């Protein structure tokens, strides 16, 4: 018997060792990649070289919509050089995601710097009944994505404190919050900064095939709003049935912290915000309910209305107004300088993004000019057609591909800027809409976030866990979060299959199929 136990222990150690080695390979592989901005600069150069090589090879494809013969354009030529120099600035300033992300961030910045979002999250979590605590924490984590990184900075450590205060394992609380914030990254009941950002990239990619194609920031809203409830329920089940029983009872010596309740000033700010929200909702309803409402489109439709097409401007106005009301009512804002400083602080977080977008914009432009996007899309579509794969297996494969790439490259926007120009045109030629391709990418990106060492906040999560378990490492985090990742993959994939089977729209005017 001792020999058997020794053998089992040895096998277990070998399995753990193999698992850790795999994690190390993933980490080393990810760290070996250049910075995303450098990566896009290299891709831009590679596109120039590839345009010349394919031009001299005589590569060509027939556009299935126009029957036009498409040939590569050599960008390493006098004409190509002139175009690169003359249109470099325009490539950057006209890049679709740039302006919409900046405008959205100004509004979110006012709401965040006023303290309103912080207060809302604390109110939501602290007022939750004990039997709904896990659900509320996962749900709050998903909603926190509206305001950039506040979920990572505020909610995850707060969840650990709250779980410990009610006699539950603090790491289970942080795992639940992390699952919502990162694993449920693409789901939400509200339009956040990620929606216009990805929509802009999708629109640029779709115009490789259809120059007039528009992708609204609300393109995936119906699917993602429904996903919010589904993922919250899945995260709750995994926490209470798998993660918490595995962790057992917390036996550490960390003292129970006092949870900071809302101050009278914060409560007053939220009351004023509630009144303002009701007023804003009334104005919006007044503008859309009548057939000739002032927020409807020129033809009286909702689809072409400023409310849908101008959702980024609406986000700026609503979030900014509520932030102003809360800030002055709570005393956080004393004057206009405080407001401007808050907006300025929010814009500072975009510094790295602005650098990355410059190189991404050049890469996307060169890819479009060279005709490589159309040619690869046509040839890729022909290959997929010959494979005989239906829409469901095709989309499942794309989810797995997106999730796999996420293990080596953390930024959602950087990955999509790379993948969209290839896969959106390819799937459009197969009859699938850019909105569908985008939503499938978002599923794959989200489900692997919580187990990817390349996720930008992964080191911070380790530090949070180490507060309660000092020997926590990458393997600990991944072992804790893997059940969420697996559950989210199956639940989200099943939800996507339901959407595909019943042909449900993904958002306002966002259908599943595209016709050339």
TrEMBL record:
- A single GO molecular function term of this UniProt record: secondary active p-aminobenzoyl-glutamate transmembrane transporter activity
InterPro entries in the record: AbgT
Species source reads: Caldithrix abyssi DSM 13497
| Keywords for the protein's UniProt record, in alphabetical order | Membrane, Transmembrane, Transmembrane helix
Q: What stretches pass through the bilayer?
A: 39-59, 92-111, 123-144, 150-167, 221-239, 269-291, 311-329, 350-369, 389-409, 416-434, 446-465, 477-502
Give any Pfam family that matches.
Answer: ABG_transport
Q: What is this protein called?
A: AbgT transporter
Tell me the GO BP annotations in alphabetical order.
Answer: p-aminobenzoyl-glutamate transmembrane transport
Q: Does the keyword Magnesium apply?
A: no
């Amino acid at each position: 018997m001792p020999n058997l136990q020794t053998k089992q222990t040895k096998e277990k150690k070998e399995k753990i060792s193999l698992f850790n080695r795999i994690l190390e390979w993933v980490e080393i592989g990810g760290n070996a990649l250049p910075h995303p901005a450098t990566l896009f600069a290299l891709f831009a150069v590679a596109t120039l070289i590839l345009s010349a090589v394919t031009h001299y090879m005589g590569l060509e494809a027939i556009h299935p919509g126009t029957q036009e013969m498409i040939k590569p354009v050599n960008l390493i030529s006098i004409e190509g050089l002139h175009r690169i120099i003359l249109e470099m600035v325009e490539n950057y300033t006209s890049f679709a995601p740039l302006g919409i992300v900046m405008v959205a961030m100004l509004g979110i910045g006012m709401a965040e710097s006023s303290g309103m979002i912080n207060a809302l999250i604390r109110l939501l979590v602290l007022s939750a009944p004990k039997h709904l605590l896990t659900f509320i924490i996962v749900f709050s984590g998903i909603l926190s994505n509206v305001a950039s990184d506040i979920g990572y900075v505020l909610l995850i450590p707060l969840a650990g404190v709250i779980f410990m205060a009610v006699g539950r394992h603090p790491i289970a609380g942080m795992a639940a919050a992390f699952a919502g914030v990162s694993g449920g990254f693409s789901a939400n009941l509200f339009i956040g900064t990620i929606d216009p950002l990805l929509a802009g990239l999708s629109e640029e990619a779709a115009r490789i095939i259809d120059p007039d194609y528009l992708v609204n920031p609300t393109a995936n809203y119906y699917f993602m709003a429904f996903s919010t409830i589904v993922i919250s329920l899945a995260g709750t089940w995994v926490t209470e049935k798998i993660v918490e029983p595995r962790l057992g009872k917390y036996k550490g010596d960390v003292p129970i912290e006092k949870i900071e309740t809302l101050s009278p000033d914060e409560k007053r700010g939220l009351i004023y915000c509630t009144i303002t929200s009701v007023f804003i909702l009334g104005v919006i309803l007044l503008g859309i309910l009548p057939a000739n409402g002032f927020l409807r489109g020129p033809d009286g439709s909702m689809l072409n209305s400023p409310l849908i097409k101008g959702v980024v401007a609406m986000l700026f106005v609503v979030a900014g107004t509520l932030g102003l009301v809360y800030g002055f009512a709570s005393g956080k804002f004393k004057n206009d300088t405080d407001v401007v400083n808050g907006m300025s602080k929010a814009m500072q977080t975009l510094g790295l993004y602005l650098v990355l977008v410059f190189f991404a914009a050049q890469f996307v432009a060169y890819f479009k000019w060279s005709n490589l996007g159309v040619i690869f899309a046509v040839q890729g579509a022909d290959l997929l057609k010959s494979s005989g794969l239906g829409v469901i297996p095709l989309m499942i494969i794309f989810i797995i591909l997106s999730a796999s790439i996420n293990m080596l490259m953390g930024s959602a926007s950087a990955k999509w800027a790379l993948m969209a120009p290839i896969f959106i045109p390819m799937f459009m030629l197969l009859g699938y809409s850019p909105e569908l391709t985008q939503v499938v990418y978002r599923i794959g990106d989200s489900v692997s976030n919580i187990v990817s060492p390349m996720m930008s906040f992964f080191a911070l999560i380790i530090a949070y866990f180490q507060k309660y378990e000092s020997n926590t490492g990458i393997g600990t985090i991944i072992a804790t979060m893997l059940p969420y990742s697996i559950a989210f993959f199956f639940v989200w994939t099943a939800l996507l299959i339901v959407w595909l089977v019943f042909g449900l729209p993904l958002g306002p005017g966002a259908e599943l199929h595209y016709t050339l």
